[in-house]
């Protein structure tokens, strides 16, 4: 495969594409709502009328408004329909000829769409994730070719560093610095790992990327491997994502067949192989050292750091670990330049971030927004507020590791530093909205129960601390607690944060501490009658 062959595939794909296309979202959310039956009905109607050649019914990835699936879009008009039922197929086909269509449409002028800036999700809804030809037709694998033939590994790392890209898995560590550390670390072999063990409740960003644009992640991994000197990559994806796994398997096979993965990529001396490892659903395996242990066939438990994986990771070799969204940003940086990327966002938080907007919100789904946008813009403008118009009480960011931010702080910009300043974190991108009917003690208890169940049990502060915190929150919820118990809860939270082995135990107290800080009155209202005198 060379650049001319790549361009020929793109030209051939575009030339053969029918002018009229009916595109349906084939991601998990829409499939669960009946998208495949809608597709079959559309194909059947076109076959009956002999129009299946001139009109293509094509699968695409996530169109964003996940709570309103199945979603169908007509091209080139761009008309997008929501809550599509199989019986709506006739009206949608008739609409191709200009006839009236009474199927509900998505308002493309709504802030949910207009306020987004698509970098990672730029191909979602445009390409068929099962066809490498679709990805190549929108410019896929050009960045990899450019890197291999026109840049040195050091220049690639410099570009990523200048872009200001930070890890999208939650910690926000500078990506270029991590790549540079792996590149200079001595070792017989080096590895690249894509962390797709997305486990936060309410989060589905990485799943959507893998289901909608798997080649984007593979190309980003290959560029990273070239930069750090690795020839083997692994994608660690949770077993609860069968569609993502299926599409990754297809994408890897297609890339190998076209010479875009494997040996002598683009007729160069660069080799890179990617294999999939399926996780068993342990939340702790999102922690990089626990993930490495799982890939090695051992129990998924974290180990003390240092040494960090960049110096001693998989089988003791230097290992680069980034999450799905981090790798998915790489090709755009190479294509458009680091200065372009660094011009987006804030001084310390560059680029865009994908959030899964869920909970008591009118517009449920995925959004990609520039760093620095405020919580109010996301929740009230893009999200549309609560479905029944009741006031929004709080939003929780960062999953079980994050905090609950009250509506009074919705002027807070969404970036790493600002969210940390109000007691939360960016996390991988979950954003759960709560209305005035939500009890914040119940929220804290829910996340503590989750962390208790997911603790690997290796260290005492996490293994015992999560159980004790859950017991105290339950005691409080049953109105059996004393005022002194609130002090004990805070002390135990601080102990866990300071002494737990890994990020799970260190951050598990965050929902408790943030709700205690901003909604303390809800805790105090549950103190028992004898609370003021209890010890």
TrEMBL record:
Keywords of the record: 4Fe-4S, Iron, Iron-sulfur, Metal-binding
Domain NADH-ubiquinone oxidoreductase 51kDa subunit iron-sulphur binding intervals: 441-486
InterPro entries found in the cross-reference section: NADH-UbQ_OxRdtase_51kDa_CS, Nuo51_FMN-bd, Nuo51_FMN-bd_sf, Nuop51_4Fe4S-bd, Nuop51_4Fe4S-bd_sf, Soluble_ligand-bd, Thioredoxin-like_sf
Domain of life of the source: Bacteria
Any one Gene Ontology molecular-function term assigned to this protein's record: 4 iron, 4 sulfur cluster binding
CDD domains: TRX_Fd_family
Pfam family, one: NADH_4Fe-4S
Entry similarity comment: Belongs to the complex I 51 kDa subunit family.
Protein name, per record: NADH dehydrogenase
Source organism of this protein record: Chloroflexus islandicus
């Amino acid at each position: 495969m060379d650049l001319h062959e790549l361009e020929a595939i793109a030209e051939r794909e575009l030339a053969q594409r029918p002018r009229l296309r009916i595109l349906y979202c084939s991601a998990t959310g829409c499939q669960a709502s009946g998208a495949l039956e809608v597709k079959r009905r559309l194909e059947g109607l076109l076959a009956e009328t002999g129009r299946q050649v001139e009109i293509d019914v094509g699968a695409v990835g996530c169109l964003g408004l996940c709570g309103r699936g199945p979603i169908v879009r007509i091209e080139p008009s761009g008309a997008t329909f929501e809550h599509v039922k199989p019986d709506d197929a006739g009206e949608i086909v008739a609409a191709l000829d200009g006839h009236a269509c009474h199927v509900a449409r998505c308002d493309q002028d709504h802030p949910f769409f207009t306020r987004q800036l698509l970098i990672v999700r730029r191909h979602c809804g445009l390409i068929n994730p099962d066809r490498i030809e679709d990805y190549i037709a929108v410019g896929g694998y050009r960045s990899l070719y450019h890197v291999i033939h026109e840049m040195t590994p050091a220049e690639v790392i410099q570009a990523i560093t200048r872009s200001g890209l930070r890890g999208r898995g939650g910690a926000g560590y500078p990506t270029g610095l991590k790549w540079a550390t792996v590149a200079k670390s001595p070792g017989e072999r080096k590895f690249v790992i894509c962390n797709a063990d997305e486990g936060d409740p309410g989060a589905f960003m990485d799943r959507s990327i893998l289901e909608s644009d798997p080649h984007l992640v593979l190309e980003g991994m290959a560029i990273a491997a070239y930069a750090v000197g690795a020839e083997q990559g692994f994608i660690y994806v949770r077993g609860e994502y069968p569609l993502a796994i299926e599409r990754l398997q297809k994408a890897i096979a297609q890339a190998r067949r076209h010479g875009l993965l494997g040996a002598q990529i683009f007729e160069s001396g660069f080799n890179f192989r990617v294999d999939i490892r399926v996780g068993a659903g342990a939340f702790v395996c999102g922690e990089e050292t626990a993930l490495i242990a799982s890939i090695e066939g051992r129990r998924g438990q974290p180990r003390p750091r240092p040494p960090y994986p960049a110096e001693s990771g998989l089988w003791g070799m230097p290992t680069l670990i980034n999450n799905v969204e981090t790798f998915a940003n790489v090709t755009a940086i190479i294509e458009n330049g680091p200065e372009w990327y660094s011009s987006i966002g804030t001084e310390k938080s560059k680029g865009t971030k994908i959030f899964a907007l869920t909970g008591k919100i009118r517009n449920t789904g995925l959004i990609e927004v520039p760093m620095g946008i405020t919580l109010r813009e996301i929740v009230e403008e893009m999200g549309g507020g609560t479905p029944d118009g009741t006031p929004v009480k709080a939003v929780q960011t960062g999953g079980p590791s994050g905090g609950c931010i009250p509506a009074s702080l919705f002027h807070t910009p969404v970036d790493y530093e600002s969210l940390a300043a109000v007691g939360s974190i960016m996390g991988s991108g979950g954003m759960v909205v709560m209305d005035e009917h939500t009890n914040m003690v119940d929220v804290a208890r829910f996340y503590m129960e989750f962390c208790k169940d997911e603790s690997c049990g290796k260290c005492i502060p996490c293994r015992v601390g999560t159980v004790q915190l859950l017991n105290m929150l339950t005691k409080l919820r049953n109105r059996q607690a004393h005022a002194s118990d609130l002090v004990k809860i805070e002390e135990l939270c601080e102990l866990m944060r300071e002494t737990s082995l890994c990020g799970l135990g260190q951050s598990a107290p965050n929902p408790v501490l943030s709700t205690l800080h901003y909604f303390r009155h809800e805790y105090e209202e549950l103190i028992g009658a004898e609370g003021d005198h209890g010890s």
